[in-house]
Amino acid sequence: MMKYNLLGKSDVAVSRISFGCMSLDGGHAANARLLHRALDKGINFFDTADLYQKGENEITVGKAFSGMRDQVLIATKVGNQWRQDGSGWDWNPGKAYILQAVEKSLQRLQTDYIDLYQLHGGTMDDPIDETIEAFELLQQQGKIRYYGISSIRPNVIREYVKRSGIVSVMMQYSLLDRRPEETILDLLQQHNIGVLVRGGLAQGLLAGKPAKPYLGYTSAEVRKAADAVQAIAGTTRKAAEVAVQFALHHPAISAAILGIRTAEQLDDALLAANAAALTGEEIKTLQSVLPANKYEQHR
Hints:
Blueprint: E1 4-6, E2 13-15, E3 17-20, H1 28-40, E4 45-47, H2 56-64, E5 73-78, E6 80-82, E7 89-91, H3 95-108, E8 114-119, H4 128-140, E9 144-150, H5 154-163, E10 168-172, H6 184-190, E11 194-198, H7 219-233, H8 239-247, E12 253-259, H9 263-274, H10 280-287
């Protein structure tokens, strides 16, 4: 059975395993079939961004859920502005840009409100108060229900915790990226701000992909972590189930967002959703395999 958690201090209950739409690459009809199957199986939270495929990702999600908007929670992101010539994008967290970008996202998503609107990054050089003003205004106007940020930078996260009404922070966290454990997970739990975990499988390295260097760990260390995950999985579970349950174990974490592109990946995500939580002993065993990495910058 799918489990649901309130997202921070919001009244939105999100599925513990949620659908990362970024990697969808089928046609609209194929994508819709996959998204509908996820919904039928209890996944209710779908995460996209205006940046993905230059807006096409929002379009495919909007088409899939047209006429059934009340059954799903849609999250999208803002802050990366495509250049006119399409050669790349520039960071723009300004109020005027956010107020303009939201209208385009609403249009592409075929909806008049977004459940969770997230700043897609963030730096200490941003006009943070202006960014917050934009989100607060959109909330008052009913165009967004809640807002959050997608950031791995502790110094930026602390500013939003102090100054804003964010209900969530999306961040990378896995057995191979334990940087959030140092201070941020506890800080967010203390303030009742939900964590949306991405990268729980560490690019598949914890779920059977060949080892390679990752975030300062050598290939040998990555292999050691993957072997430890597999040892706990044993013969009754898949490694991916254990890796995802590790990424969900901290009480600050509301959901793990898994990138899903195929029916097989959806099946694996559903297995992970229904897997038993790891015991305290299993978590300690996994954490003892490698020293935790820490933030060198953006502290």
